[in-house]
Design brief:
The chain is built from 13 helices and 21 strands. Strands 4, 14, 15, 16, 17, 18, 19, 20 and 21 form a nine-stranded mixed sheet that branches. An eight-stranded parallel β-barrel has the order 5-6-7-8-9-11-12-13, surrounded by five helices. It has a three-stranded antiparallel sheet with strand order 1-2-3. With about 450 residues, the protein is α/β, with parallel strands linked by helices.
């Protein structure tokens, strides 16, 4: 496979000021005179020395504040954190204490959450292809809602639920809206694997089948139109189409469904100058469209559910790497670090671009264009293409990458048997291990054959 990299610009680059650069960092981030950066009152350079590199730091107060932002913007809605972005026992506790529910996609995520004491009735189970074990665990543990994603799940669920019991169900609908930062994360159209189409009648057929199952209680409809969505307009359009579907369900079956889930996918900023989705604006526009649409359709306003994941956890995370090599090849300068696609596959999957920063020492050298690459044996192991770092960057230096809390370690792999990094919570000057570093012994114990 050939990997195409954009050409590095030539010559020195003007420096950004800290205010511009720190706009994409946790609110607690501060620069120090010696070139270090603190997050949650914890020195990133000292954390790298103490815990080794690569290391991920997660600002607890940032996570909690972002939960509160959603609760304030949507006081009458159910906010459920999308665990696929990143889940640990501590994160489950943080979002629970801040009044959020949880959206899980497997028996593993569900089991971890319930083991922390997360109330199962505040959990939503998702997945386009839930296994029998996933469904049995969801029913056995008493999750609040299961989102049906295919017709085959209806009969399977009806057989699992005990006689005399009822499981609350939602139907995931494809509303026919394209939105998202990359083709691989646009999930609102008929050409992808998620949901049941309104256009071909699959969603309406699923509704009719569920209403005919006495052990299943249809409580609403669900859609998720994509991820890393920067504007409110697609959500307003999705609400309009979902209200139309609710009206058709009422007209065809005489049932007024009480819930509407519009998913998540809210964008965050990965680079200076990028704009996150404005949550307050989203709340005002969605609420207005929902109320107006229901008035026109003569429907009661359903209770709204939202599923932010990246927007809660992404900006709270910072990854720290150590430089292993600096190589100049032709007109390009490659800065190789001790992590890469095994702890962050997103650049390889989606072409995501980050803004690494030199930390731990002050440099007066002019900024120069470089490509930051990982340590893995793949040409596509590129963490940051065409970014700028001081021209004197050298082996042993530390690079910090902000906006690293979502879809890094939750998608991490064991490629090259490098081992996944630890996750360290930082708050009020204290650092504590949430997930320890994966060791060679950890990986070796799984290999039992000779």
């Amino acid at each position: 496979m050939t990997i195409s990299l954009s050409p590095d610009p030539v010559g020195p680059v003007p420096r950004r000021d800290d205010a511009e650069e720190f706009a994409i960092w946790p609110a607690s981030a501060r620069s120090a005179a010696d070139g270090d950066v603190t997050v949650g009152g914890v020195s990133l350079a000292e954390a790298a020395d103490r815990f080794g590199t690569p290391v991920y730091l997660l600002d607890e107060d940032e996570v909690r504040e972002r939960c509160r932002t959603y609760r304030t913007a949507f006081p009458d809605a159910d906010i459920v954190y999308a665990a696929k972005a990143f889940l640990s026992r501590a994160v489950a506790r943080w979002v629970r204490e801040e009044g959020l529910g949880l959206d899980v996609c497997s028996a593993g995520e569900l089991g971890l959450a319930v083991a922390t004491g997360f109330p199962p009735e505040r959990i939503v189970m998702h997945g386009n292809a839930k296994s029998p074990d996933d469904l049995r665990a969801a029913v056995r543990l008493g999750v609040g809602r299961i989102v049906v994603d295919s017709a085959s799940e209806i009969a399977r669920l009806a057989a699992i639920v005990s006689p005399g019991s009822r499981q609350q169900i939602m139907v995931r609908v494809v509303p026919g809206i394209a939105a998202g930062g990359h083709a691989a994360v646009r999930t609102g159209t008929d050409d992808q694997k998620f949901g049941l189409s309104i256009a071909d009648g699959s969603a309406q057929h699923a509704v009719a089948r569920i209403l005919g199952q006495p052990r299943l209680e249809l409580v609403g409809v669900h859609c998720h139109i994509g991820s890393q969505i920067t504007t409110v307009k697609p959500y307003v359009a999705a609400v309009r189409r979902m209200v139309g579907l609710l009206a058709r369900v009422r007209d065809q079956h005489g049932v007024e469904l009480p819930q509407l889930d519009i998913g998540g996918g809210h964008a965050i900023a990965y680079r200076p100058g990028e704009r996150p989705l404005p949550v307050a604006v989203l709340a005002a526009r969605v609420r207005a469209e929902l109320e107006d649409g229901c008035t026109r359709a003569r429907l009661p306003v359903p209770r709204l559910t939202l599923e932010p994941g990246r927007a809660v956890i992404g900006p709270a995370g910072v990854a720290v790497y150590r430089v292993l090599a600096v190589k100049r090849t032709g007109e390009r300068t490659f800065v190789a670090v001790d992590g890469g696609m095994s702890d962050n596959p997103r650049p390889a999957l989606y072409g995501v671009r980050y803004t690494p920063r030199l930390i731990g020492r002050r440099s007066a050298a002019a900024l120069r264009p470089v490509t930051v690459v990982g340590r893995h044996c793949e040409a596509g192991d590129v963490l940051a293409d065409g970014v700028t770092l001081p021209g004197d960057v050298r082996p042993g230096d530390l690079l910090a990458v902000p906006a690293a809390g979502a879809y890094h370690l939750s998608m991490a792999s064991g490629y090259n048997l490098v081992g996944r990094p630890p996750v360290i919570a930082v708050a009020q000057g204290r650092a504590r291990v949430l997930i320890r570093r994966e060791s060679l012994d950890d990986m070796g114990r799984r290999d039992i054959g000779l």
